[in-house]
Design goal:
Layout lengths: L4 H14 L9 H8 L3 H4 L1 H24 L1 H19 L5 H29 L5 H30 L1 H22 L12 H11 L3 H29 L7 H7 L5 H16 L1 H18 L5 H6 L1
Length: about 300
């Protein structure tokens, strides 16, 4: 069943993980004015969390392998909610950046555990569908975080946005604790040190490194585009406020529809062929954002 409780729990875990990752993107112009700083400096509120994710992800995978996916996922989600609430207490941009880095440290514990849980708890024929549901949840979480961040900042101020998202994260964590059942097929690894040594061996796999490079390049361009487009659209002649900037991110929801189709197309036409088409389409979209008319930018 597509909407069985376990599958919905996986989607909720993805929403929880990505709810706050990019939340400041729509807030950036407002934060720039609040803290009287430059574009590059205030953009660190996005970079700090994404950098922390990159640094913590390998360790999170090893910890999940040792202590169990469900336990690590729930603890990480709870700590993510707590640090998101903590960001609301920041009195300076430096404090906010530190809190954003702390948020990023706990995000990998959610998505690495969820991916491992999918691989171990569902038969191979079902994993593509469950993984697609996880990806759809990630897209939804990214959109909701950006949209709420922009809307709440516009009407109530940026600390309120962090309070709301932190409370929502903790609420989702409570729901996950009730719905996500314990692993049936989990077998602990040979200790944390052994898991880290295994990670070092995997890091020598050239095909895996190439795949990571593709992920790096894709996210590098996507995060940068969605970050700096906020400053562009907040300036003349567009003059969009933070609420409207949050609405612009609705284009991100296309990913919820595209993901299941992408999996089917990859099976039909081949992964590499679809990858090349996707990269070219993404590059073309970024070039369209250089145009003047707002509808063309949104299409890009």
């Amino acid at each position: 069943m597509l909407f069985e409780p376990r599958r919905l729990a996986i989607a909720l875990a993805a929403v929880c993980a990505f709810l706050g990752l990019y939340v400041t993107q729509a807030m950036l112009p407002a934060l720039r004015l609040e803290f009287h700083t430059g574009v590059q400096t205030v953009a660190l509120t996005v970079m700090a969390s994404t950098l922390a994710v990159a640094l913590a992800a390998p360790l999170a995978g090893a910890i999940s392998q040792h202590y169990g996916q469900r336990r690590v996922l729930l603890v990480s989600a709870a700590l993510l909610g707590a640090t998101t609430l903590g960001a609301a207490t920041a009195h300076s941009l430096a404090e906010l950046i530190v809190w954003r880095f702390a948020e990023g440290l706990f995000i990998p514990g959610i998505f690495t555990s969820a991916v491992a849980y999918i691989a171990e708890e569902w038969p191979g024929r079902e994993t593509p569908a469950v993984t697609a549901l996880f990806t759809a949840g990630a897209v939804l979480g990214s959109f909701v975080g950006r949209y709420l961040g922009g809307a709440l900042t516009q009407f109530y101020g940026w600390p309120t946005a962090f309070v709301a998202l932190g409370a929502l994260t903790l609420t989702l964590t409570a729901a996950l604790a009730r719905v996500l059942r314990r692993e049936r097929n989990f077998a602990a690894g040979g200790g944390l040190a052994a898991s880290l040594r295994g990670l070092a061996k995997v890091a020598g796999n050239r095909r895996l490194l190439a795949t990571c490079a593709i992920g790096f390049g894709t996210l590098f361009c996507q995060v940068a585009t969605f970050t700096y487009i906020s400053f562009h659209l907040a300036a003349a002649p567009y003059l969009l406020d933070t609420h409207q900037l949050g609405e612009v991110v609705a284009v991100f929801l296309i990913g919820m529809v595209a993901t299941p189709f992408a999996g089917r197309l990859a099976q039909r036409y081949g992964t590499l062929r679809l990858l090349r088409v996707g990269l070219l389409a993404g590059a073309g979209g970024m070039l369209l954002t250089l145009a003047q008319p707002l509808p063309v930018i949104l299409a890009g």
